[in-house]
Write a structure and sequence with these properties.
alpha/beta, 10-stranded parallel β-sheet, 12 strands, elongated, F-box domain-containing protein
């Protein structure tokens, strides 16, 4: 009859046939597997999974391994970082902010305090270039990040190391670009390097020491393989024997007149070394 609704035909199961099982869904997986999946995502994508359903609203908060990373041009990122860190219940192993605006400098200190207690391993904090080189001074909590394996700092100022500074025993990569130290800060830099016995890569680019008077200090890194020093002033640094060195680039615009260049060149006189020395 025209206009009458069509009746849906029921599918009859043959005798002994098993009923059709529902299709598996993502939520049917064990929670530890789901957390492992979320933990492999960058932080922004991980947080966005909270919009999938009620079950996913807080899943990212307990998913270990999420990589915390922000770049330049991300409006409001500095404010969001602290909120996300406060909600995240797992250790933060990888944290990078590639361009911290001046308004977010104070928040960076709050992040450091949290990260020091979360066992951060890879840490990169790059600040926007300050006017007249008035850099933001980092919180002393930077010296409490003992689990660090990689540390990259840019356009900031490091405070003097505290008397109880015990070093970075796991650090393998240290990169400092346009980082300022307080008067006699060469002692802090010396301590950071010498207290990292596993250090393999060291980059000091446009590092500055305040005060105008410097003490002699020594780079001690028995496992160092790659060395880059690009400085405007000499800062009276010396190098001990580097038995593992493979590549080195040294450029100093205003070197010390008292430097022993024979001793400096001797540090690189080994078959494994392939680099250049520019002074």
């Amino acid at each position: 009859m025209e206009g009458s609704p069509r009746r849906r035909k029921l599918r009859r199961l043959s005798p002994g046939a098993a009923p059709q099982q529902p299709k598996p869904s993502l939520n049917s997986l064990p929670s530890e597997i789901l957390e492992n999946i979320v933990g492999r995502l960058p932080v922004r994508q991980a947080v966005r999974t909270s919009a999938l359903s009620r079950d996913w609203r807080r899943r990212w908060e307990s998913s270990p391994g999420i990589r915390f990373g922000w770049g330049s041009g991300e409006a409001g990122a500095a404010a969001a970082v602290g909120q996300i860190l406060a909600r995240y219940a797992c250790p933060v192993r990888h944290f990078r902010h590639g361009w911290i605006e001046s308004g977010g400098s104070a928040r960076a200190d709050e992040w450091l305090v949290v990260l020091a207690g979360r066992g951060v391993e890879h840490l990169a904090l790059i600040f926007s270039e300050a006017d007249n080189f008035l850099f933001h001074t980092l919180h002393a909590a930077i010296f409490s990040c003992r689990e660090l394996t990689k540390l990259e700092l840019g356009s900031c100022r490091l405070p003097a190391a505290p008397s109880d500074f015990s070093g970075f025993p796991n650090l393998t990569v240290l990169t400092l670009t346009m980082v300022a130290f307080p008067p006699h800060g060469e002692r802090t830099l010396e301590a950071m390097i010498s207290s990292a016995p596993l250090l393999q890569s060291l980059e000091l680019k446009n590092v500055s020491m305040e005060g105008g008077e410097w003490d002699e200090w020594v780079i001690r890194a028995p496992n160092l393989k790659d060395l880059i020093i690009q400085l405007e002033f000499d800062f009276l640094w010396e190098i001990e024997q580097l038995p593992s060195i493979q590549t080195a680039t040294i450029s100093v615009d205003n070197e010390s007149t008292d430097r022993d260049f024979v001793q400096l060149l001797t540090c690189f006189a080994r078959p494994s070394y392939t680099g250049k020395l520019v002074c």
